[in-house]
Every structure is written in C-alpha cells, then in structure tokens.
Amino acid sequence: MTDSKLIVALDFPTLHQADSFLKKIKGADCRLKVGKELFTAEGPRVIDLIKNYNFEIFLDLKFHDIPNTVNKAIKASCSHGVWMVNVHASGGKAMLDAAYDAIAGSNHKPLLIAVTILTSFDENSFDRLGFKMGLKDQIIHLSSLAKESNLDGIVCSANDIASISSIIKDENFLFVTPGIRLKDNSNDDQKRINTPAEAIKNGSDYIVIGRPITEHDNPLDLIRKINAQI
Ligand code: C5P
C-alpha cells in the first residue's frame, strides 16, 4: 500500500509490452491504471501480471449500461481484488445506485468513482453533444449525482475541482484527475490539462498520467521526479 498520489495509466496494446514497461518501473512508488485497450486485448491476466509486481490497480473500464448489467460488471471487477473501479456518472442515478450496491454486497470493496465529462472535451466539442447545460454546469450536476449515490468520488479535470467542492462539501469525496501534462505545450487529445503540481494544488487526490510516463526513456526516474513534485 503506497501513499503516493500518482496513478500511472498502463495503456499498452499487449501483455508483453505492459510487462516490458513493468520491468522498467519495478518497485516504483505509484499505483497503476488498467484501461479498455489492455483489458480488452488481454483480459484478467493483466491483473494477475500487475499483482506479481505488487502494484495496486485502478480498473478503469468506465461502465455505462443498464443498471443490472453494470451491477454484474462491478461485481466481477470486485472479484479481481482491485483497488478502484469506475462508471460514467451520465449512466444516471439508478445505474450509479446499482454500482454502489454491487460493491456493498461484495467481500472485497474497491473505491467506486464516477467519470463526469472526459478531459478530452473542451467547451466547443461538448456543445456539439447537444446537452441542455454547458460543460461546467454539467460537470457539477453529474458530480452531485455521484455524491447522492454515495460514490467515493469522481474523475474530472483538476480545473473543475474548485467549483465542484463549493457544491459538494465533503472532504472525503475523492478527485481523480487525468489530463495531466508535464508542460503546458502538449499537443494531443487531452484538452483541459494541468501539470502534476497544479493538479495537487487545485485539490486533486490522485493524478492519472499515461503517455508522458509510458513513452518516456526512463519512466522510473520520471515517476520519482513527479512524486517529489507532489
Ligand atoms: O496518456 P494520458 O495521460 O492522456 O492518459 C490518461 C488516461 O486517463 C487514459 O488511460 C484515459 O483513458 C484516462 N482517462 C482520461 N479522462 C477521463 C477518464 C480517464 O483521460 N475523464
């Protein structure tokens, strides 16, 4: 069990590539996130591989389906002994309740968090979805829905934490923030970005970083540097 606030996104296409990366960061002080790419390609043996390296796991499958299906999917996730799981808050109150019930009824109880609006959206691309509210109001609305269903926290941009905490007054409510870049001049699909130190200053409990670490020549050294900054 680490107290590092860093979660490294293990976004690789194959178990073999994930294992090569894990060999490079063996013993690092962080947690790991397994997402749709690697889990879809390789299945639960990814979880077994990571456990051999003693990292706690955030299983980031962002479920969004009818309540019964999400309930069963979360139960299956719990059986893997992971540290954190998630769903999309836009799945609605009944779906969030079903996810919560799955955890309440499982022997192993991971943290359950909800994705609000993906950090790859900016105001323009969000407007094109046709929601009634603007991006910022929608994020606050979805965060409140997650809170009402007793979830442990949300995934959001570190830029959104101040406005959400002004509505949700619970210091135990967790903010997990992707969209982290080491410099402000990144040019990929993430739009609402922060540096690690900015994200923590804004109130992030856990920062999620993928490509800046997985594509780095010396990821172990970079993980140490980021831990020192946060
Ligand atoms: O490479 P990068 O640092 O952009 O990776 C961010 C990770 O966090 C990816 O695995 C992505 O799927 C995930 N994520 C995100 N935005 C969210 C939720 C999860 O970028 N709102």
The CATH topology is given as TIM Barrel
Q: Main sheet: which strands, in order across?
A: 1-2-3-4-5-6-7-8
Principal-axis shape equals globular
Q: Tell me the domain tally.
A: 1
The largest sheet, given as strand count, sense and whether it forms a barrel, is: 8 strands, parallel, barrel
| Rg computed from alpha carbons, rounded to a whole number of angstroms | 17 Å
Bound compounds, each kind once, are:
cytidine-5'-monophosphate
Number of strands: 8
Regions with little confidence, pLDDT below 50 for 5+ residues: none
CATH homologous superfamily? Aldolase class I
Number of helices: 11
What is the terminal separation in angstroms?
18 Å
Strand content: 15-25%
What's the quick description here?
This protein has helices at 15-25, 36-42, 45-52, 67-78, 93-104, 123-127, 135-148, 161-165, 196-201, 211-214, 219-229, and strands at 6-9, 31-34, 57-63, 84-88, 111-115, 153-155, 174-177, 206-209. With 230 residues, it is of the alpha/beta class.
